[in-house]
């Protein structure tokens, strides 16, 4: 890493100057370490500023793209008689284009890997998210299986852990999904654990482990105030397994592509009786 190398060079220069000045060994050690720390901090500070500027640019691109899609949906909802399938295809195409743009944008962060120890993992994390949204599951699995201290993705958010669990489920690695759930659940408290509880209970249901799903939902009800868990627990308790649904968990759940979201609805125009033209 350039930051460490430059900091070591700065420290060596300071120590060399102090040796020529015939100061004590203790002073040389102290100022040598101090110069290394200060140099490393200054380099890290300016590097973070540049990284933040690039990340903000990416966030702006994603925000503008999302706002554009929201306007399309609003326009569709306000105009009766529109083609539902057509607008859905347009929104899907816009989303894919936005995710591709974001994925390509991550290459602009590559040069910072020489300066930041965790940049490689941050890039892998972003690529994991964009690749999953693009349904490039082969690439997703490659990223998740990457080994190395500074290479694999940082699973610091529930949605990222859920993506890993979803891929393990799709790859018929149920025990691994269960292990991932238990390992990461302890890091998420309250509402942040909602998606993981919902996904693991869904996996149990799909695997025919109804009692496991019901027990997990019972724990989820106690830990989180969420109507979806209570409703699904009632469904399983009343043998209504076919009605089990995590739709109530919202956009994060639908982002896993395990359950289809409801289609956007159009506003209906009601004709007032007695106001129409008579013939």
Average pLDDT score: 85
Largest sheet: number of strands, sense, barrel closure? none
* Helix content, binned percent: 55-70%
Continuous helix count: 11
Structural class, by secondary structure, is mainly alpha
The whole-angstrom Rg is 27 Å
Shape: elongated
Written as H for each helix and E for each strand, in order along the chain, the element string is: HHHHHHHHHHH
Low-pLDDT segments, ≥5 res:
269-279
Distance between the termini: 84 Å
Total count of strands: 0
Strand coverage percent: under 5%
Structure description:
The protein has helices spanning 2-20, 25-78, 84-105, 119-133, 137-144, 158-170, 174-185, 194-206, 210-223, 227-237, 251-254. It has a domain at 155-262. The chain has 11 helices and no strands. Helix 1 packs antiparallel against helix 2 (25-78), helix 3 (84-105) packs antiparallel against helix 4 (119-133) and helix 7 (174-185) packs antiparallel against helix 8. The protein starts with a helix and ends in a 25-residue tail after the last helix. It is elongated. It is 66% helix and 0% strand. With 279 residues, the chain is an all-alpha fold.
Key attributes of the depicted protein:
279 residues, mainly alpha, 11 helices, elongated, disordered C terminus
Element layout with pairings:
Elements: H1 2-20, H2 25-78, H3 84-105, H4 119-133, H5 137-144, H6 158-170, H7 174-185, H8 194-206, H9 210-223, H10 227-237, H11 251-254
Short synopsis of the structure:
The chain has helices at 2-20, 25-78, 84-105, 119-133, 137-144, 158-170, 174-185, 194-206, 210-223, 227-237, 251-254.
């Amino acid at each position: 890493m350039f930051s460490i190398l430059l900091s070591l060079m700065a420290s060596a220069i300071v120590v060399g100057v102090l040796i020529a000045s015939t100061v004590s060994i203790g002073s040389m050690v102290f100022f040598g370490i101090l110069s290394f720390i200060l140099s490393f901090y200054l380099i890290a500070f300016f590097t973070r500023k540049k990284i933040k500027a690039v990340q903000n640019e990416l966030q702006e691109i994603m925000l503008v793209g999302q706002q554009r899609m929201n306007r399309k949906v609003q326009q569709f909802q306000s105009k009766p008689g529109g083609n539902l399938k057509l607008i859905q295809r347009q929104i899907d195409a816009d989303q894919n284009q936005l995710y591709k743009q974001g994925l390509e944008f991550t290459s602009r962060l590559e040069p910072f890997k020489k300066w930041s120890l965790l940049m490689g993992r941050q890039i892998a994390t972003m690529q994991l998210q964009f690749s999953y949204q693009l349904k490039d599951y082969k690439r997703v699995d490659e990223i998740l299986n990457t080994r190395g201290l500074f290479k694999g993705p940082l699973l610091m958010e529930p949605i990222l852990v859920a993506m890993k669990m979803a891929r393990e489920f799709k790859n018929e690695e149920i025990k691994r999904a269960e292990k991932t759930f238990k390992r990461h659940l302890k890091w998420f408290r309250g509402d942040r654990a909602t998606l993981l509880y919902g996904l693991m209970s869904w996996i149990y249901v799909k695997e025919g482990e109804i009692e496991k799903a019901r027990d997990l939902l019972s724990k989820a009800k106690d830990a989180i105030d969420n109507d979806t868990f209570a409703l699904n627990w009632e469904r399983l308790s009343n043998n209504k397994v076919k009605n089990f649904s995590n739709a109530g968990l919202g956009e994060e759940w639908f982002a896993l592509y395990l359950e289809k979201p409801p289609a956007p609805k159009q506003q209906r125009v009601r004709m007032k009786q007695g106001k129409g033209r008579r013939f």
